[in-house]
């Protein structure tokens, strides 16, 4: 069995509310191997967003441990988590989340700025990733000059630019029509075939069907974890 | 990394030009007024220093004591207590550069159809050195002129302009109380003294001539005042002490007896004048600094708005790996850029305003490199100080909350 990209042991997260401590996530054990394509499903309030935030190193757990590429990151400081997000994880969001004032090339290169790369290297790598998602000709354009599907491609290029082991996609097709959604899912499948692990949060079952493995959450608990029977995605 | 951040700060500023411009305006006005006020204040200090230096530096004036006759007391200088011998003795003291006995008064000067009332000063050649007074033309009178009581004179610019409106006074003759005086030198222009008296409305003649031919002197050998110049400011206390001791001894004053002369120190008057202008320029600078402070608060205000508006952007940046210090640096750079750009424009306006003031009024304006540097450093400091809180707020945002922000 290949090395696990993600391994959680008894992972839990509670929030303090006026009514007292509210457990949003309880005791989750999950292991995702390198190169897997996993869909995380569940109704809103099921804890899947909390789980994604923990996987993405945007938040720290209240209990349990989280091993990212073999390293326990459950108790790291903010800036160490930022460095991990920068190097190991690529984020793709529902709302694309490109910076409107910057060109597409600069948007894609932004993680490299925080990684401390030189200007010329940033340019080259940003252009390479734009070409990989089929938008090489749009390097100088602004996000508002291209379509939603294209914006999501740019966001994927940005997620890829630092060569992460893991891509976390949070409802990446939620703002797209079904045709464009299929295109984006195809792109994810391509990347998965190139060996990148992908974890996708969605509540649409046809989107989740692209993944090789589906994990379901309900009321903060992991309730099911089963393969979809697909050897290769989509 | 630094270049990329500066570039981004520049972009962010350009994204909302009107707002950046208005924020900058606060700094422009602040820096501009500080530079202008400092220029005016330092100009005033400079002109006072100029005036003080025309009076002569490190000077003491020894004035003879008053007399009392039948209950009527003369003012200081009325008694015959100081003598030429005193002046000669003082000249022998250590630390004394120049000694000039002085007998002066106002006299009517006559030349042809013109007449003019001016201060006539009877003195000896060291007077010119003590007061750092040069000649515009001609030559000064000498010790032998003083010994022989010759009727020669050095004329000041104002007196010359009024007595000799259209001619060169050098070599001409004027009369004081029917006595003819030959003008052998014309004094360089000095301007006003601290009291506002015109120092050029004067005529210098040998002391002996003044006493015998002009003022008359009921006490031969006495003199009303002696001007004493010390070699340096540091030597002044020692000179003062030895001068007082010498005069008391020469005048045979017993212990406990009051001095029969007065000692005035021009440095004290000069110091107080300089102090006054210094305080004034400080005050001007302080008032102008308030507007700089207001400009800084404006920057803080706008940066806080900007942080709130860009919460989502901050969340995105954090998600893709910006550390807290990256976010802090980004917003600090923006604040710094606004304040420094405003400062540069303010400097131009301040310097321009100072030059304009100089051109339109006769105020003296001094723009020193130090004041420009200080204004610049203060503006940068304000950018960092007032930019820090908003930047810190941005850096402390929770990435999840920030990402969720609409």
Key words describing this protein structure:
heterodimer; A: alpha/beta; 4-stranded antiparallel beta sheet; 10 strands; 29% strand; B: 406 residues; 6-stranded mixed barrel; two-stranded antiparallel sheet; 18% strand
Commentary on this structure:
The complex is a heterodimer of chains A (234) and B (406). Chain A is an alpha/beta fold. Helix content of chain A is 33%, strand content 29%. Chain A has seven helices and ten strands. Chain B has 406 residues and is α+β, with helices and mostly antiparallel strands. Chain B is 55% helix and 18% strand. In chain B, the strands form two sheets. Chain B has a six-stranded mixed β-barrel with strand order 4-5-10-7-9-8. Chain B has a two-stranded antiparallel ribbon with strand order 2-3. In chain B, α9 packs parallel to α12. Chain B is elongated, with a radius of gyration of 33 Å. The two termini of chain B are 28 Å apart. The relative contact order of chain B is 0.19. The chains are: A alpha/beta (234), B alpha+beta (406). Chains A and B meet through α2 and α3 of A and α1, α10, α11 and α13 of B.
Strand content of chain A: 25-35%
Poorly predicted residue ranges of chain B? none
Secondary-structure content class of chain A: alpha/beta
Mean pLDDT of chain B: 86
Number of helices of chain A: 7
- Helix percent band of chain B: 55-70%
Percent in helix of chain A: 25-40%
Extended strand count of chain B = 12
> In one word, what is the shape of chain B?
elongated
Principal-axes geometry of chain A comes out as: globular
Number of strands of chain A: 10
Spatial ordering of strands, largest sheet of chain B: 4-5-10-7-9-8
What is the tally of helical segments of chain B? Answer: 13
The major beta sheet of chain A can be summarized as: 6 strands, mixed
Give the spatial strand order of the biggest sheet of chain A.
6-7-8-3-9-10
Q: Compute the gyration radius of chain A: what is it? A: 18 Å
The topology string of helices and strands of chain B comes to HHEEEHEEHEHEHEEEHEHEHHHHH
Low-confidence stretches of chain A: none
The rounded Rg of chain B comes to 33 Å
Estimate what percentage of residues of chain B fall within beta strands.
Answer: 15-25%
């Amino acid at each position: 069995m290949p090395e696990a990209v993600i391994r959680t042991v008894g992972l839990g997260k509670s929030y303090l509310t006026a009514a007292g401590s509210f457990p949003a996530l309880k005791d989750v054990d999950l292991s995702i191997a390198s190169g897997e394509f996993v869909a995380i499903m569940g109704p809103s309030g099921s804890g899947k967003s909390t789980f994604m935030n923990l996987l993405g190193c945007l938040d720290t757990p209240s209990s349990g441990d989280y091993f990212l590429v073999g390293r326990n990151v459950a108790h790291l400081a903010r800036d160490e988590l930022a460095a991990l997000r920068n190097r190991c994880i690529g984020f793709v969001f529902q709302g694309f989340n490109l910076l409107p004032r910057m060109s597409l090339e600069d948007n894609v290169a932004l993680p490299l700025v925080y990684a401390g790369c030189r200007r010329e290297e940033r340019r080259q790598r940003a252009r390479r990733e734009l070409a990989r998602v089929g938008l090489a000709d749009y390097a100088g354009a602004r996000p508002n000059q291209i379509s939603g599907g294209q914006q999501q491609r740019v966001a994927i290029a940005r997620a890829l630019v630092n060569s992460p082991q893991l891509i976390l996609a949070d409802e990446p097709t939620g703002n797209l029509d079904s045709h464009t959604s299929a295109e984006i899912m195809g792109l994810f499948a391509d990347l998965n075939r190139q060996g990148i692990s992908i974890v996708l949060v969605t509540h649409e079952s046809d989107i989740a069907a692209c993944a090789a493995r589906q994990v379901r959450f309900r009321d903060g608990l992991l309730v099911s974890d089963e393969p979809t029977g697909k050897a290769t995605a989509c | 990394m630094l270049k990329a951040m500066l570039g981004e700060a520049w972009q962010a500023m350009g994204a909302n030009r009107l707002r950046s411009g208005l924020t900058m305006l606060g700094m422009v006005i602040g820096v501009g007024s500080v530079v202008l006020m400092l220029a005016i204040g330092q100009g005033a200090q400079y002109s006072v220093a100029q005036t003080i230096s025309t009076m002569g530096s490190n000077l003491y004036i020894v004035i003879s004591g008053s007399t009392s006759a039948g209950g009527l007391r003369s003012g200081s200088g009325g008694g015959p207590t100081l003598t030429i011998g005193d002046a000669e003795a003082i000249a022998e003291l250590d630390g004394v550069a120049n000694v000039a006995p002085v007998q002066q008064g106002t006299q009517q000067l006559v030349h042809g159809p013109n007449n003019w009332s001016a201060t006539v000063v009877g003195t000896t050649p060291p007077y010119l050195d003590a007061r750092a007074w040069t000649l515009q033309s001609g030559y000064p009178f000498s010790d032998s002129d003083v010994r022989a009581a010759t009727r020669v004179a050095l004329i000041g610019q104002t007196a010359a302009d009024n007595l000799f409106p259209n001619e060169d006074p050098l070599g001409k003759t004027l009369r004081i109380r029917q006595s003819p005086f030959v003008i052998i030198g014309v004094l360089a222009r000095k301007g006003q003294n601290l009291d506002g008296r015109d120092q050029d409305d004067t005529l210098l003649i040998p002391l002996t001539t003044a006493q015998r031919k002009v003022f008359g002197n009921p006490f031969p050998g006495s003199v009303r005042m002696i001007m004493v110049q010390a070699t340096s400011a540091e030597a002044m206390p020692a000179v003062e002490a030895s001068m007082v001791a010498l005069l008391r001894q020469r005048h045979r004053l017993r212990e406990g007896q009051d001095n029969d002369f007065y000692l005035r120190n021009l440095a004290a008057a000069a110091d107080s004048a300089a102090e006054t202008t210094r305080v004034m320029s400080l005050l001007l600078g302080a008032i102008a600094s308030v507007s700089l402070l207001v400009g800084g608060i404006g920057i803080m205000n706008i940066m806080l708005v900007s942080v709130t508006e860009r919460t989502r952007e901050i969340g995105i940046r954090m998600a893709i790996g910006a550390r807290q210090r990256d976010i802090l640096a980004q917003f600090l750079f923006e604040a710094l850029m606004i304040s420094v750009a405003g400062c540069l424009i303010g400097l131009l306006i301040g310097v321009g305003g100072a030059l304009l003031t100089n051109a339109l009024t006769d105020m003296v304006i001094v723009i020193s490199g130090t004041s420009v540097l200080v204004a610049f450093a203060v503006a940068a400091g304000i950018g960092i100080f007032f930019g820090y809180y908003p930047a810190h707020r941005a850096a402390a945002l929770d990435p999840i909350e920030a990402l969720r922000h609409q």
